[in-house]
Amino acid sequence: xxxxxxxxxxxxxxxxxxxxxxxxxxxxxxxxxxxxxxxxxxxxxxxxxxxxxxxxxxxxxxxxxxxxxxxxxxxxxxxxxxxxxxxxxxxxxxxxxxxxxxxxxxxxxxxxxxxxxxxxxxxxxxxxxxxxxxxxxxxxxxxxxxxxxxxxxxxxxxxxxxxxxxxxxxxxxxxxxxxxxxxxxx
Length: 186
Fold this sequence. Notes:
9 helices, mainly alpha, 82% helix
């Protein structure tokens, strides 16, 4: 009887934890929906501030330990230590495989280390986990340009603008590519 009571308590506890995490996840997603709505309606005066708020949400894993690994990976990237960044971010991805930002940051480290295939794989996984991740979309555009795949780069930059219409880097990249195409046609 004591074993059955213990099993029931563990089951109820597990259910409560799952419900709490699901509720928190739903609340975070709802908050992001609101921010993305604001971002789609933003003007020149406030779009960057809203985008920063979206990015700040992307970077919250819900775990202090995982946030620390993300921060360490980011610090290593800032210091130019791509290998250390890859190591920290691989640990993050291994421990939190559903945290899109871990893959996004590691994609940046891979790209800087000249590892285009792994970078593209991590960007793909970022977008599987977070289809509105406009920075990952932009990263795909950069990679496609590096690989000489201009049409795919244009499609990626256009996808960024569907989510974040005033994203300046995507706007500039599309303008630059349009000039290149126009120059080739002449």
